[in-house]
Amino acid sequence: MSAKRTWKVAVTERVNTVSKENVMDRYSSFERFYPFYLSQHQNRTCRRLHVLGSLAVLALVVAGIALQNVWLFCLLPVCGYGFAWVGHFFFEKNKPATFTYPLYSFIGDWVMLKDVLSGKIEW
Residue 23 has what DSSP assignment? Predict the structure, then answer.
């Protein structure tokens, strides 16, 4: 089995294990939530849109600070969520986790970006 498929198998196995546990206790920590988060991002185009959106958010933050333009910060949610939601609605065809788990989902976006950039998750 290739390394690129390994993370999908691990995520699927972890989600199946978690789904058998008490629903109220399912996501009591980010560590427990992240396998579910990854299961909602198996489509390559969806992941790529998330990465592009997150990188665009970072670029807007840098530009906002460098140009001392507060208005650029107003674009952060539109840019970040816009890319992600297009990925979910048109490619992954699921409901974004941010609707149900906003904080964990926000953290998951940045952890997934790190994992993609480090090669742990397929680009």
Answer: G
Does residue 122 sit within a domain?
Answer: no
Distance of alpha carbon 53 from the chain centroid? 10
Q: Which residues are CB-neighbours of 109 under 8 A, at least 6 positions away?
A: 50, 53, 54, 80, 84
Residue-wise pLDDT for 29-46, tens only, equals 999 999 999 999 999 999
Tell me the three state secondary structure of residue 75. Answer: coil
Length of the chain: 123
pLDDT tens digits, residue range 97-112? 999 999 999 999 999 9
User: Is there a domain that residue 31 lies in?
Assistant: yes
Joined tokens for residue 20: 């058998």
> Which residue range is the domain that position 7 belongs to?
3-117
Which pair of tokens denotes residue 90?
């048109």
| pTM, two decimal places | 0.79
